[in-house]
């Protein structure tokens, strides 16, 4: 039997201390995805016990580029808490991370609950606003390497995120050009179409996965729809900017001395 609480504590401690650990699957080769989601939830419960609040959900591996980069080919999801939220244009202390990487994404904010099998139209009808977003992922595993169960247990590498200016959901998000720059140099070019062919499909999948896990996406929640490109490693002292066609620019700096 898998000791869910103990493995959640191991991952949570690694996040709190910004210190990498071995993959859980090394010592627990039979760890399955269902238990991995239980571990992720137990680790979030530790954060809630410390005063954090769930503010949404993130989708992972919604683009082929991300699947190819990490060698995983299943959709995954993780919890978002208020402590992971950073201010647009602000600084994230570099000491908070182990080996941070950043991804260009879209975010939605819900105005109504959403769960189960829904069409893209039904899913989008629950959206109050859409925004460009940058997600900082930071695997708690050494060398940023993991199996599917490992990364699920690690809350899909969630660490921090920043959302840019919200706008009305009548913007057509099907195929928006996205350029992510680090210190003024463009490093990733993509399109929102890379997110499951259409970002609305990621919200449909989020509703389905939430239903399977026994909860509903709530009004007021933010859902990160997944990266449109491979992730880029970031170093202390760097500023990352995302420009998305027809949307506001969003940016975040990794504060602290250059590594
Ligand atoms: C897992 C998280 C993937 C995305 O947007 O695809 C993710 C990882 O690559 O470590 O957040
Ligand atoms: Mg992501």
Structure, explained:
- The protein has 259 residues and is α+β, with helices and mostly antiparallel strands.
- It has one domain: Fumarylacetoacetase-like, C-terminal domain (Fumarylacetoacetate hydrolase, domain 2).
- It is 27% helix and 29% strand.
- It is built from 7 helices and 13 strands.
- Strands 1, 2, 3, 5, 6, 7, 10 and 11 form an 8-stranded mixed β-sheet that branches. It has a 5-stranded mixed β-sheet with strand order 4-13-12-8-9, with no helix packed on it.
- Helix 1 packs across helix 3.
- The longest helix is centred in the first third of the chain and has 17 residues.
- It starts with a helix and ends with a strand.
- The model has no long low-confidence stretch (mean pLDDT 96).
- Bound molecules: 2-oxoadipic acid (OOG) and magnesium ion.
């Amino acid at each position: 039997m898998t000791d869910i609480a103990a493995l959640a504590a191991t991952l949570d401690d690694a996040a709190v201390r910004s210190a990498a650990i071995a993959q859980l699957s090394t010592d627990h080769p039979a760890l399955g995805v269902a238990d991995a989601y239980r571990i992720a939830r137990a680790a979030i419960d530790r954060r809630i016990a410390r005063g954090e609040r769930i503010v949404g959900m993130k989708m992972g591996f919604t683009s082929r580029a991300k699947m190819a980069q990490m060698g995983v080919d299943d959709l995954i999801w993780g919890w978002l808490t208020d402590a992971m939220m950073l201010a647009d244009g602000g600084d994230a202390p570099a000491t908070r991370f182990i080996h941070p990487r950043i991804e260009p994404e879209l975010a939605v904010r819900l105005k109504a609950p959403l769960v189960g099998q829904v069409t893209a139209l039904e899913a989008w009808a629950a959206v109050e606003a859409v925004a460009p977003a940058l997600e900082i992922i930071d695997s708690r595993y050494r060398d940023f390497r993991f199996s599917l169960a490992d990364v699920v247990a690690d809350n899909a590498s969630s660490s921090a995120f920043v959302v840019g200016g919200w706008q009305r959901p009548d913007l057509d998000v099907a195929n928006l050009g996205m350029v992510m720059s680090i210190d003024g140099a463009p490093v990733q070019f993509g399109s929102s179409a890379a997110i499951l062919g259409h970002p609305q499909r990621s919200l449909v999948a989020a509703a389905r996965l939430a239903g399977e896990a026994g909860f509903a996406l709530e009004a007021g929640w933010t859902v990160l729809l997944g990266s449109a490109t491979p992730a880029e490693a970031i170093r202390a002292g760097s500023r990352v900017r995302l420009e998305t066609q027809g949307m506001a620019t969003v940016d975040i700096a990794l504060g602290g001395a250059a590594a």
